[in-house]
Design goal:
Layout (H helix, E strand, L loop, with lengths): L3 H12 L5 H16 L3 H6 L7 H15 L4 H5 L1 E4 L2 E4 L9 H14 L6 E5 L5 H9 L4 E6 L2 H13 L4 E5 L15 E6 L14 H6 L14 H13 E10 L5 H10 L3 E7 L5 E7 L1
Parallel strand pairs: 3-4, 3-6, 4-5, 6-7
Antiparallel strand pairs: 1-2, 7-9, 8-9
Helix pairs in contact: 1-2, 1-4, 2-4, 6-7
InterPro entries: DNA_methylase_N6_adenine_CS (IPR002052), HemK-like (IPR004556), N5-glutamine_MTase (IPR050320), PrmC_N (IPR040758), RF_methyltr_PrmC (IPR019874), SAM-dependent_MTases_sf (IPR029063), Small_mtfrase_dom (IPR007848)
Enzyme class: transferase
Keywords: Methyltransferase, S-adenosyl-L-methionine, Transferase
Length: about 280
């Protein structure tokens, strides 16, 4: 007979060599709340509860996956972002709080626009595009990604959240061949790949082994290739008063700013995230 209390102890014992104690505790309460369909507070107040065989099997499944350092979001199949729940899997990046900050910045600064034309480049799970569509209901939101698998996830998220987003499969590095090149946008946003191979040593195995490398990494020899091409695309496809938003590599903020300035953008601002890292770039035509 297993209680929630004994399962919490089991999690602590089996995960102690992989995660800090505080994180193990957090993971346990996330799993327990999900498995029992109750709140985390209710879990904490009812650690004496006995779990049934099906629930016990689910706890064991999750524990095994956590021992393999699979992200909890992939194990459960979803992740929170900007007040919504998004399906995620091995084909999509797990939405990060820093990206929520980028979305909040866009909503705050662009909510004055009526029927804004918005494009999200490299949409992944669709978290940016869908959140903007939900929070800017008068905007027309489009999103593109090179990965058909990621776009399938994004489409399911849009349907589940009743968000009107038009998705397109396309490699932005080939933007000069894009049939939609004549479209004009008011807002373009992108969180493109920007991590260099030398930064891998700073990353956890959870990320390195379970998230799509094509959405994370760039070549050491040309780490800003996506910013250069997207800035050139935006210089041609943004309206006269259009705005460009990037999530950026904190170590290459100055170089990224120089790229957008070279394309004629003005009012270029580098903004820090909640952790004090230079994480967002904003500019206008």
């Amino acid at each position: 007979m297993q209680t929630l209390h004994s399962l919490r102890t089991t999690f602590g014992q089996h995960l102690a060599e992989i995660y800090p104690a505080e994180e193990i505790d957090s993971l346990f309460y996330i799993v327990a709340a999900e498995t029992l369909s109750i709140s985390r507070l209710q879990v904490k107040m009812n650690l004496h509860l006995v779990v049934n065989d099906l629930q016990l099997a689910e706890f064991q499944r999750v524990l095994n996956a956590l021992q393999g350092q699979m992200p909890i979001q992939h194990i459960l199949g979803h992740a929170p972002f900007y007040g919504f729940e998004f399906e995620v899997n091995e084909h999509t990046l797990i939405p990060r709080p820093e990206t929520e900050e980028l979305v909040h910045l866009i909503i705050t600064q662009e909510k004055y626009r009526k029927q804004a034309q918005v494009l999200d480049i490299g949409t992944g799970s669709g978290c940016i595009a869908i959140s903007l569509a939900k929070k800017l209901p008068h905007a027309n939101v489009e999103a593109m990604d090179i990965s058909t698998e990621a776009l399938a996830v994004a489409q399911r998220n849009a349907e589940k959240l009743d968000a009107a987003v038009r998705f397109t499969q396309f490699d932005i590095l080939n933007w000069r061949k894009w049939e939609g090149e004549s479209r004009i946008y008011d807002v373009i946003v992108s969180n493109p790949p920007y991590i260099t191979p030398t930064e891998k040593s700073e990353m956890s195995n959870q990320v390195l082994e379970h998230e799509p490398h094509s959405a994370l990494f760039v070549e050491e020899s040309d780490p800003l290739i996506f910013y250069r091409e997207i800035a050139a695309f935006a210089a041609r496809c943004l309206a006269a008063d259009g705005a460009l938003y990037f999530e950026i590599n904190q170590y290459l903020a100055v170089e990224t700013k120089a790229i957008v300035e070279a394309q004629g953008f003005s009012q270029v601002q580098i903004l820090e995230d909640i952790n004090g890292a230079k994480r967002m770039l904003y500019c206008r035509r």
